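Input sequence (218 aa), recorded before submission:
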Amino acid sequence: MAPDDRYTIPGSGGVLRNKLGLTTRSSVDRAMNRAATVRWAVLMLEPIPDVLDLTYLCSIHSRLLSPVLDWAGELRKEGDEVGAGGTSVVYALSRFYRKGVDEVFELLASEDYLRGLDPDVFVSRLAERWGYLTMTHPFRDGNTRSQSAYFDRLASRAGHPIDWQQIDVAALRMLRLGAMTGSAQPLATYLRERLVDPSALAPSSLSFSDALNPPLNE
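Predicted structure, token format:
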């Protein structure tokens, strides 16, 4: 049974507090997946802003998960320590993570959010930045969902859209964890194989299916 913290229902063994009165981790995950899938599909039809900063990432997290979570869009605070469920990976400590988050977005801004790069350089940079952002783990939960939607918008703006129907949620998660703890090249290779010609792609968001639930704290 997972320990409780300020985000969870007291005595529940780690069930996130939620607006729907759900009392099991699996039911909360399913509700988050449904909300994120539907709202991301709408987001993909909207114009992409020129500034894809931390505020934008927070707005995506809020938009995708606010039907379920009161704290959607809020960065984790000091004392909110989390690890990657089902692994030995520990994310950045809460007293340090914000420096890393700021560094990621400063890098992306200096690179015009990776616009103007050829595909191979693009996926290499994207994998490195995504690995770094994964390590910082800005939110208590919902990072896989919100970061996937964020980097979708970034990739489309950069002229290298990703075919999300070819993305496996579980595989993507493990590659991101690998990018944060070692080499980003496997993630870059995985993404490179799933880039598509922008003129040939109809918008298609990633479905966070029940079978591929990101684990709790993810």
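Checked by second reader. The domain at 25-212 is CATH 1.10.3290.10 (Fic-like fold).
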